[in-house]
Design a protein that fits this description.
155 residues
């Protein structure tokens, strides 16, 4: 599989990523134990900057590494074993990263991030593009940031 970039089918990829991101928002509303958590960003950083980091930069960097670079590296190191092993490995590393970074409970950070990583890996494999997983991650992080930082008057 190698490094997965953004291909010419970007409209379909964008639709898949946005739909999957909305799906994770709905899943979060239905089952609160799958909240992934937010990074602890210094309060001195302006809210717009915090949003850009949380909703745009972090998803782009994380997806490029966990769904782009890491699977190709694992495949070359372990001589192209089954794709599912690499998907489980990248999802596990993604979950460990979020568990360690956010310091919230195991079920909150690890389980939610692991499921997210599996789905993002599947979507990346299916589309052969990281754009859908970046958009899915951005939609979900945007939702989490808004719920943590914006008052909606009792909603």
């Amino acid at each position: 599989m190698g490094f997965v970039g953004i291909d010419r089918n970007y409209k379909q990829d964008a639709f898949i990523g946005l739909t999957a991101g909305i799906g994770f928002v709905v899943l979060n509303k239905v089952s609160a134990q799958f909240v992934l958590g937010l990074p602890a960003i210094a309060l001195s950083v302006g809210q717009l900057s915090q949003f850009v980091v949380t909703a745009m930069a972090a998803p782009a960097f994380e997806e490029t590494f966990f769904r782009g670079v890491l699977p190709g590296t694992l495949q070359s190191l372990f001589h192209n074993k089954t794709w599912w092993l690499f998907n489980i490995a990248q999802a596990t590393l993604f979950a460990l990263f979020h568990y360690a970074a956010y310091g919230v409970g195991f079920q909150t950070a690890f389980v939610g991030a692991f499921l997210f990583g599996l789905v993002a890996g599947l979507i990346t494999k299916y589309t052969n593009s990281i754009l859908p997983s970046i958009l899915m991650h951005s939609v979900f992080n945007s939702y989490l940031w808004l719920m943590s930082n914006v008052s909606f008057g009792g909603i």
